[in-house]
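[job 0412] stage=fold_complex status=start
inputs:
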Amino acid sequence: MSCEKFEQLIALYVEGDLPETEAHVVARHLDECASCREFAAGIEETQAALKDLRLEHVGGAVFAEVREQVLREIPAIGSARLWPKFAIAAALAAALMAGLLWRVLAPAQPVQLQAAAPLVPAAPPAVEVAARRTPVHHRGGARSARVAHRVKPAPVFKSEPLVVKMLTDDPHVVIYWLVDQNGG
Amino acid sequence: MQELALVMSGECVDAQEPEFARLVKQAKAGDPAAFEAILARHERPVLLTALRLLNGNIEDAKDAAQQVFLRLYRALHQLDENRCFAAWLYRITVNVCRDMLRRRAKSPVVALEQAEYRAADEDTDKVLERSERMRIIQRAIATLTERERAAVVLRDLEGIPTHEVAQILRCSEVNVRSLISNARIKIRKFAGRQMKRRV
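[job 0412] stage=fold_complex status=done
writing structure:
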């Protein structure tokens, strides 16, 4: 190995940063090579000067200034972190209030049978059956009219309340919104 | 939140003591005194590391330290108090300083006297000699690449073991040794040239 390559190892050797096996190789080379010994002494000298920087003293006023500045800015961060949560909560509350007001002020609407159609098994169309029979048997007209009056009442639309789960960026804050779908 | 990966995953080299874990828990719960205690405990290594990475510019170092602690405050609720907090903090410090240096393509080196340094009790000649040597070393550090500077500051000035420096800089130990070796040789050569000029 050339002395130039040893320089890289010597720079680590002087501070004990080499594994044992490599350190032995460097130590043997330093015993034999005067120029590398000189290089090692030079590195040791600048390393000592470098470590003198550790002894520098930065005045307590500097630390106090940094601390004061950080603590001054923290409340702004705290409120900046909280305002989206408040904004979401306020928006939800406003939406809820608007929904309630609309329900109170708007005239009650009967539940439309069509709305429940997908959930309710299809009932036989009694009226249509009666209507089809009417022209064939004229004598049974009164009976057909009775059949027509036996139209089944619209099934009550009952479903579970709709649950809206809203996640915020705070894992401890989850907003649940229960929506009664029966108009209650 | 890339830095948080270091805290959330990977092996912890220096698990924190229970006292520190308690402080982090209290700070997370919104106790300002606990956060101030964390700040007081870590402000020195953060500021001094920043000072060295920013070529001795004390104003930049103060700015960097503030940014580091504000980042810490923002990330507090995601922090695992049982993980390597110091390594995480050093990593943020290195990243903040790197960003600052990139923003200011050239950072002027502030003379050590202007940077509010105070030497230990020594006679005047020794103080002057030491100050001059420090200035040369500071300039030598400024000639290093970002990675070399970070490696040598963490290893030689902060005294962090090589494997932890590797964690902080997110590279292999072999890579760190190479960075440190190059940096030490460059510092030696720069200082040698400066000394010759003075003689």
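[job 0412] summary: Chain A touches chain B through 39 residues (CB under 8 Å).
[job 0412] exit 0
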